[in-house]
Design goal:
By secondary structure, the protein is an alpha/beta fold. The protein contains 7 helices and 11 strands.
Length: 233
């Protein structure tokens, strides 16, 4: 498999997809066209999303074709040279992907070695389930089941603390709840500006910040870029 799972599309004060573009370009070297899944968009159109991503991918010489334009989106995925899934609302994304048979189609293509790039919600759906998303369930999918390209759960946009004055649960508490309810699963807190790359059987943390690891029976701990992550596989 070849996966590039990105926490967030845009760092504060930067242009859209600015920080991950060099890594995306490296990862998709030699690719001429990607099948793009825009279904996490809610407050803007799929066509607008496609145009936005195309504007950046044009810098790499890559054509973006959105599955929303296809009569048979799953067939487009089955023919795709590479697959890209954008961020937004994970529940909206999951519902549409399940309705169109894209979870299975993407799983099969990824297992066959087709490159997959996702950010935010697009990273969530690469996991076994969407249970560690930050998003509100604005629509109801068939289930929480996702692509399952990796065996662990990702919490993108991971934050270490709540805003000042907020007395609710921290992100860490929510992830501790997840691993308590799902003791066989690891969950990882992927901070903004970071991504996970899986190639040649090796999982690597990219970025300048550590990643937080959650597993039932273990206190949460940090791993650094360059650390061995084979335990997640």
């Amino acid at each position: 498999m070849r996966l590039l799972l990105i926490s967030n599309s845009t760092n504060a004060g930067e242009a859209y997809l600015a920080y991950p573009m060099p890594r995306i370009g490296e990862f998709l070297r030699g690719i001429r066209e990607v099948a793009f899944v825009p279904y996490a968009a809610v407050t803007f159109s799929y066509a607008d999303y496609e145009r936005r991503v195309q504007a950046r991918f044009s810098e790499l010489g890559i054509r973006v074709r959105s599955v929303h334009r296809a009569a048979d989106p799953a067939a487009m995925i089955r023919r795709a040279e590479a697959i890209c899934v954008g961020g937004g609302n994970t529940f909206a994304l999951t519902k549409k992907m399940q309705e169109q048979g894209l979870m299975r189609a993407i799983r099969n293509r990824v297992k066959a070695g087709v490159p997959y790039v996702g950010w935010s919600a697009g990273s969530n759906v690469a996991c076994p389930a969407i249970s560690t998303t930050n998003d509100m369930p604005i629509v109801e999918p068939e289930s929480f089941r996702a692509v399952g390209a990796v065996k662990f759960q990702i919490n993108p946009h991971y934050l270490d603390a709540n805003p000042e004055g907020h007395a609710g649960e921290t992100r860490e508490v929510r992830l501790l709840e997840f691993v308590a309810a799902n003791p066989r699963r690891y969950a990882v807190g992927l901070r903004e500006g970071c991504m996970l790359r899986y190639e040649n059987g090796r999982l690597e943390l990219l970025g300048s910040r550590p990643m937080r690891i959650f597993k039932k029976g273990l206190p949460p701990y940090e791993v650094q870029p360059g650390d061995d992550l084979s335990f997640l596989l």
